[in-house]
Design a protein that fits this description.
11-stranded mixed sheet, Nucleoside Triphosphate Pyrophosphohydrolase, alpha+beta, 4 helices, globular
Length: about 210
Amino acid sequence: METELLNIFDDDRKQIGVASRAEVHTKGHWHETFHCWFISKEDDRDFIYFQNRSKDKKDYPDLLDITAAGHILSNESVMDGIREVEEELGINVAFEELVPLGVIDYCAEKEHFIDKELAHVFLYHSHHPLEKFSPQPEEVSGIVRIALDDFYGLWFTGKESIAADGFEINNGKRIPVSKNVRKEDFVPHEDYYYRRVLDSMRQLETEKC
């Protein structure tokens, strides 16, 4: 497998070189990523879409995460990150359809793994029904949608569990799912990341009304 090379940055977001993906996460270099959040409005409620990471993923297997996300390679622009949407979800989206939410820097650490991201975050107003999603099995094992206000309540106002519905792929078969999820079912992004993303979503939806 070809080694992924990523641009690396100092604490002032100035590029200082290029490193392999393995070195980036071992030494804790700042690097660029692409995050795309799908959102939809149904029956006057706003919903967020989460991917279920494959059970075979090395990092955070079988947890719910950003709708589509990935690293921006050293020879790519931020616009090239749009490939992650089609690769992971099987949905064709033009970069011009995305709403930029800015660059959010954050750090997550666990044993032998340091993830210091400069995340270019985007919002996509989706009109695709769940049956149109065709996830890449080795990356994504399913898609669920959750009411935006419910997710905000789970993360910031003390709700213990919230409803999620969608589908999972098991042995090549698409199976409908409807379940309650808790905080520990999600990739543990830092609170300020979720707050900034959710506040931006709520503001944009308010401005549309």
